[in-house]
Amino acid sequence: MIPFSFDLLHQDTRTQARRGRIHTSRGKIETPIFMPVGTQATVKGLLPEALKEVGAQIILANTYHLFLRPGHQTVQDLGGLHRFMNWDRPILTDSGGFQVFSLGQLRKISEEGVLFQSHLDGSTHLLTPELATGVQEALGADIIMAFDECIAYPSPRDYVQRSTDLSARWARRCKEARREGDGSALFGIVQGGMFPDLRRKSCEDLLEIGFDGYALGGLSVGEEASVMYDVMEATLPHLPHDHPRYVMGVGTPENLIEGISRGVDMFDCVMPTRNARNGVLFTSFGRISIKQARYARDEQPVDPACGCYVCRNYSRAYLRHLYQSGEILASVLNTHHNIHYYLDLMASARSAIEANSFVEFKRDFYHQRATH
Amino acid sequence: MIPFSFDLLHQDTRTQARRGRIHTSRGKIETPIFMPVGTQATVKGLLPEALKEVGAQIILANTYHLFLRPGHQTVQDLGGLHRFMNWDRPILTDSGGFQVFSLGQLRKISEEGVLFQSHLDGSTHLLTPELATGVQEALGADIIMAFDECIAYPSPRDYVQRSTDLSARWARRCKEARREGDGSALFGIVQGGMFPDLRRKSCEDLLEIGFDGYALGGLSVGEEASVMYDVMEATLPHLPHDHPRYVMGVGTPENLIEGISRGVDMFDCVMPTRNARNGVLFTSFGRISIKQARYARDEQPVDPACGCYVCRNYSRAYLRHLYQSGEILASVLNTHHNIHYYLDLMASARSAIEANSFVEFKRDFYHQRATH
């Protein structure tokens, strides 16, 4: 079994962009990378073969959802999440912290953990750092996330400070709760809201505990993009170069490019999948809404510059027809294209970093959008 | 271009079961065959590649739906239905007759045709034999169905008689309206309700006009299975052996086996696709409802005797989880399995007929269901 490790392969000469490689027992992950979200043990609308076709190297699954249904014990008894969902490449599981706050009801936070009611059946559960870690281990995750409190935005400084300190104590308990020797990684999550000094303090607390990788949580929660970038810039320099950095729940293609140029290695977001189901498609020249009447007789592919299965085989007119007709294939094809777009963008970014041309790549990225 | 033709390859020695081959300009169709239903220019949940993987040789599309949305002219302008939906094998289009009666509102039947209101937007349309034929030609169908009146069951004999006569006059108009020389086929539709003599009369009327194939319409409309089989037995002997026979809208696996043993070559039905979306799966030992709690921890495939992609890669527990979670892949995987089941059943039937062992095949088919 290959234990988790990270190689920083190349540092761009003119930006903070990094080209790296994560090793896991289930294969390599070339960074920067975007991780498609498979909330309920499925990336909505994409078969594992399609995920591989579009180049997915790692996907994300959701502790909160799988804990409630079908239950981590059931998944473990059935051979683990990889076998359950027929996906043999790496899986990162979030800790459930975000969903407890966004979906759970009547939540009550204590030092011990979070008491919440299931959004499915109202049943009450106490999620603790130890349980969140155990659930992720039972699922068989390759990358386990520490359990943290997701802070609402905006929140008063004193609340953010107390919450960030609590999350640091929880992070320590996650590390202490870990089962040894399965080759998986544990990532800590930097909190601190939009306060640079609290972000720095959070980095220091997590570094003292020591993790395999470091995530930035509490972003993409309603703040301006410029605020998000400021937080990245205020935080990333305090994280070690030889560990992967992951910005959670981010974001638009623009957010990803900006994150990469500031030194982020990993991203996840429901944006490409959720937007796909709403008929919003990402292209090299920006987003389009396929439901618009202008596409009713448009025989072009979604993006003439795209080489994905959808763009090779279907017209905008057909995709609009499927969407208007409420057909399952609308979600399937739109999701396929959007995930391909995101992963292809990451592959291009990686090549640009290797060639020390990330500045030009970024300029072209914006130029194509501006001139369309 | 290869014009439409039918070869009767082998006649079973102990039943009426037939092994045949249809030639079209888009490839061969080995009969007996089941045609998956692709109502709105998509077999719900299955990509064309998946349809090919499960062995689909021909699919059905729906004139009524495509006439209303996106419009046959739009489809034609975009290169025809095959290109529109990325399917290069044969397509049979129904005439719209059935949907006008089951979905259209305020329908008014006259000698000229049927005046109806769209179920989508209430707009009024007059569908005539000439228009129904023209729409199917514009779509680029390989097999075109004559426009007929679908008779409610039960209906009084005098209504059935008048309606069947009207459908015969419409069938003649369809044939006269046909564009020549595109290599497609036109099938007539035998009506006559559940009255053997009216079925026979309908056969005679259609034979006088002359069609490339003959369908039995007005079945699977609420009658007992034994009544359906009686109608098949009363009708099929009056149809020519050297043309394909197609029973429309039928049916269960049992209906197909019984139809084949009486000399039917072609079937279509929404049953495998619609049931799949409702979590009902077909197996060699009968139907199962995947939503049942008994499958929550069941690591077996849907059907241990099945070799399809779904049964090779996923457990009943995972399929139940997807269904319970309302996931898109529930419909995708369930549909894949069900269509594979239907098409594999047809492939086995064809082999049995070739080996003169259809009687044994049919006995085993029922035996597996009875002893489970």
Description:
- The first copy, chain A, has 372 residues and is α/β, with parallel strands linked by helices.
- The first copy, chain A, contains 15 helices and 17 strands.
- The first copy, chain A, folds into 2 domains: 5-269, TIM Barrel (Alpha-Beta Barrel); 276-371, no CATH class.
- The interface between A and B is medium-sized, with 35 and 34 residues.
Topology record:
Two copies of one chain form a homodimer.
Chain A: E1 5-11, E2 18-24, E3 27-31, E4 33-35, E5 37-38, H1 48-53, E6 59-62, H2 63-68, H3 72-77, H4 81-85, E7 91-94, H5 97-102, E8 105-109, E9 114-117, E10 124-127, H6 129-139, E11 143-145, H7 157-177, E12 185-190, H8 196-209, E13 213-216, H9 225-235, E14 245-247, H10 253-261, E15 266-268, H11 271-277, E16 280-283, E17 286-289, H12 309-313, H13 316-324, H14 328-354, H15 358-370
Helix pairs in contact in A: 6-7, 7-8, 8-9, 11-14, 13-14, 14-15
Give a nutshell description of this structure:
Chain A is an alpha/beta fold and 372 residues long. Helix content of chain A is 42%, strand content 19%.
